[in-house]
Amino acid sequence: MLYVQKFGGTSVADVERIRNVARRAIKTKRAGHDVVVVVSAMAGETNRLLKLSKSVTPEPSERESDVLVATGEQVTSALTAMAIQHEGEAAESFLGHQVRIVTDSVFSKARIQSIDCTELTSALKEGKIAVVAGFQGVDAEGNITTLGRGGSDTTAVAIAAAMKADACEIYTDVDGVYTTDPNICPSARKLSRISFEEMLELASLGAKVLQIRSVEFGMKYGVPIHVRTSFNDSEGTWVVEEESEMEQVVVSGVAYNRDEAKITIVGVPDHPGIAAAIFTPLSDASIVVDMIIQNASSDGRTDMTFTVPKGDFKRAVETCRKTMEKLGCNDIRGDENIAKISIVGVGMRSHAGVATKMFGILSKEGVNIQMISTSEIKISCVVDAKYTELAVRALHDGFGLGDVDGVSKS
Amino acid sequence: MLYVQKFGGTSVADVERIRNVARRAIKTKRAGHDVVVVVSAMAGETNRLLKLSKSVTPEPSERESDVLVATGEQVTSALTAMAIQHEGEAAESFLGHQVRIVTDSVFSKARIQSIDCTELTSALKEGKIAVVAGFQGVDAEGNITTLGRGGSDTTAVAIAAAMKADACEIYTDVDGVYTTDPNICPSARKLSRISFEEMLELASLGAKVLQIRSVEFGMKYGVPIHVRTSFNDSEGTWVVEEESEMEQVVVSGVAYNRDEAKITIVGVPDHPGIAAAIFTPLSDASIVVDMIIQNASSDGRTDMTFTVPKGDFKRAVETCRKTMEKLGCNDIRGDENIAKISIVGVGMRSHAGVATKMFGILSKEGVNIQMISTSEIKISCVVDAKYTELAVRALHDGFGLGDVDGVSKS
Lengths: 410, 410
Prior knowledge:
- 2 copies of one chain form a homodimer.
- Helices cover about 35% and strands about 25% of the residues of chain A.
- Chain A is of the alpha/beta class and about 400 residues long.
- Among the domains of chain A are: about 1-175, Carbamate kinase, CATH 3.40.1160.10; about 265-335, VC0802-like, CATH 3.30.2130.10.
- An 8-stranded mixed sheet of chain A has the order 3-6-2-1-9-11-12-10, with helices on both faces.
- Chain A is globular, with a radius of gyration of 23 Å.
- The two termini of chain A are about 40 Å apart.
- The interface of A and B includes residues 77, 81, 82 and 97 of A.
C-alpha cells in the first residue's frame, strides 16, 4: 500500500513533535507500506515570515512573499528527513520544484496544474521515505509559488491522486470531522465517515478542518482522505465517495459562519438586467458575493439582499451606493451582525420536509430567519449573530446528530 | 557598467540594514549602471538553523543540512527584493536553482561548475535589479547544495566572472584589507590595492576578509574585487591583477594563524618512500597537512615535522603512531601551542634578503623560530604561540607597513 501522510503546523511545531512525525512515518513504512510525508511550516513560522516582510514594506510583492514563506516548509522538510534518518530509515526531502509540482502563476494562491511523480517514485523504490515540502510549487517559468493558507492539504491530496495512493492521511490537532463545533455544542460527535460532497459543503461553510481544494482533488480523483490527530493512534474521519448507507442519515453536520455581512438595496426598479447592474461592479472590485435573495416585486420595485465577507463590507456598501444612484433605488441597508447557520447531508436528496423541520426548530427557539438559501445537500439560514450557539445546538440535537454514528432520529 | 554587489550577514542583519542594502543598490542603478546584488543569510541565521538540525540528530545528513541552511539566503533575497521595490525600483530575487548555479554534489562545500546568465541578463534588460541568494547552488540531479562558509563571496565573484561584470563589490563589516590585524597591531593600515596572489596568501593564512575560492575565481577570470564596508561610502581595498608598481612594495601584509598544531616524528629511517608512508595515512583520514619540514639526515635517520589543523591534532597523532610502529621510528612529539606568522608580498620576487631581514627582526625580539616555509611571495615561520602579537607587530613595523600606502622603508 502507498500512504501519503500530511502533518500540519501544530504537528511539527517543535523538534520533539517532528520526532513523533518521523516515528509515525517509520511505523507505517515498517508495516510494509510505501510512505510519502507532506509537511507544513512549523506553527507560527509562516506568520513570523509574513510579519518580517510587512516590516520591510506594507505591500510586499506576491512573487517575493512566496519566495519568503516557502522557506517555512523547506525547513520542516529537511528536519523531518533528518529525524527519520536519525531513527534508522532512509529519507529524502523534496521541494516543490524538485518533485516537481507545477502550478499557474497566481502567486500566494496558485493552483496545481501537474505533478511529476518520477523522482518520488524512484525514491520510494530505493526504500526511502519521501518527505515533501507542502504548500509550494513552481510555475512554468520556474518562479516559486504557494498554494494559499492550508495549501499543504492540497499538496498531499494532489500527490496522493497523482501517485494513485491508497489513502491520504491528514494529521491535524483535532481528531476528526465533527457533526458540529464541539466548542459550542457539547453533544457534537466525531463522524467515522463523510462523503466528499458533504465535506465540501462543511469546509466552505467555515469548518476549518480541510482546505476546500484538497477535498475537490480527493473527490475528482477518488482519493480516500483520513482526517486524524497526530497525538494518538485513534481512527479519525474518512472522507470518501458517497456510499448508499450515507443516504440514511439525513443531516451529517451543522456548520456556522460569522464572517459575512448582509446588504439590502431597497426599492430596486424591477426590470431585466438589474441583477447584472448591481453585481458586476462588485465582482469588478473582487468582492465575492455569497447568498443572494430577491424578494417578489411590488409596484415595479423589489428589494435585493446579499451577503459579502465582513472584510469587504465597507467597500461593498460604497460600490453599491454608486450603483444605487445610477439605478434610482430608494435606500441601502447593511448589517454586520449576522451568522449563517447551515445543515448539510447527502440524505436530503431523498428525504422530504428537511427544510420545514429546520425552520420549525429555529422558530421554536424564537430565532427569526432573515435569509434562506438551499442546495441539493445543504440548507442555510441567515440569523442574528447573537443566536449562533443557540441555533447550532438546537439544530444539532433536533436532527439527532448527538446519537450513535449511522443512526438518525429524523 | 555592470556591478555585482555582495552583502555579508552583518550587512543584512536586520530590516533596517536590508533597507540600506536596497538604497545602495538603487544608488548604483540610478547612476546608470546594471546591478546584481548577492546576499548572505541574516547574521546568526545559519547558526540558528544548524543548531536546530543538531537538536534533531547529532550527525545530520549533509544533503538535508544544505536544504535547511539554504533557506537563510532565500529569506534575505526575498526581503532585499521587497526593500528595493519599496524604494521604487524593480527587483527580482533568484535562488541558486533559478539562476542557475550548477555545482558538484559535495554537499556543504560544493564547487561551482557552471553559471547560466540567461535569466539574470534578461532581468537586467527589463530594468530590474537582480537579487541572488548567495552560498547556494544545485547539482546536476537538482539537489540543493551549498558552497561552504563564506560561500556568498564565491557566488558573487563567480557571477561577476560569468557576466563579465566591471567589478565585484564585497560589502562587509570591515572597511578593507589591512596590512595586518588592527586588533593586535595599532599601526595596521588599510591597503588601497592588493594583487590576487597576495590576497590568496593572506586569505589562506587566516585573514578572514574574503573566501579563498572567491579570490581564485577573481584571479582566474580577471574580475576586480572591491572589498569595502556597507556602513559608509569610503573606498575600501581593490583586489586586482598585479601591477608593476606593486613590486616596489616588498611586503604587503603580515598574517598569523593560531589554528594549527605541530607534530614531529623523531628518528625516521631515511630512505626513499618514507614521506609517502607517513602522509598517505593522514590524507586517507582527510587530515590536511600544511607545512612539512624534513631535517638533514644523520646516522641514516631523520626527523619529520609538519603542521595540521588543531581540530585534527589528536587523530593525526594516533594515525602517526601506527605508521611509526610499522616504520620503526624512535618517538613522536606534538605541540598545540604554536602560531604561524607570515609575510606576504609580490615584491619578494625581485628583492633579495627579505627572509634574512625577517629572521633578524624576530631574533632581535628574542622570538625563536621552530619551522620555516617559503613560497615565491610568502615566508612563514612557526613560533611559540605566546609570541604571536609581539612577532606580528615587530614584522609589521620592521617592514615599514605602517607608512603611507605604496611607499616602503625596506
